[in-house]
Amino acid sequence: MKTMLAGLAVAFALTGCASIVSGTHKNITINSTPPGATATIYNKRGALVRAMSTPCVVSLRRGDGYWVPARYKVNVEKEGYNPQTFEIGPATNFWVLGNLPFGWIGLAGLLFFEPSTGAMYMLSPAEINASLVPDDSVKIKSKS
Fold it and tell me: What total of structural domains would you count in the chain?
């Protein structure tokens, strides 16, 4: 029993407050009016992360390397409508300050664990609501 408690204590000591409270991923909700649009998510290097039909929820990594926050671009498209682009960017996760009362162990979490997992960052916005506008050029072409 003592070994298990010691193991749990070490596990908590090697993690940070932001990691425990917020985790390393953030769920982002993507809605569109009208529904059924394609939401395509790209990382900051332009690589495809995921493509989904709206409404949807996607889990995105908060970090993109040691001390590097993640950034994403979301394109929402539907045939007959003008596409919209949104950006998801980082903000500081203030739960990292919860490491400070724990002295050297907390400092290790603040300087090593939180930056390596990305838990020290939040992603914003947490919800995207795309109001797609009909593309008038499509209507003009179809009347011809």
Answer: 1
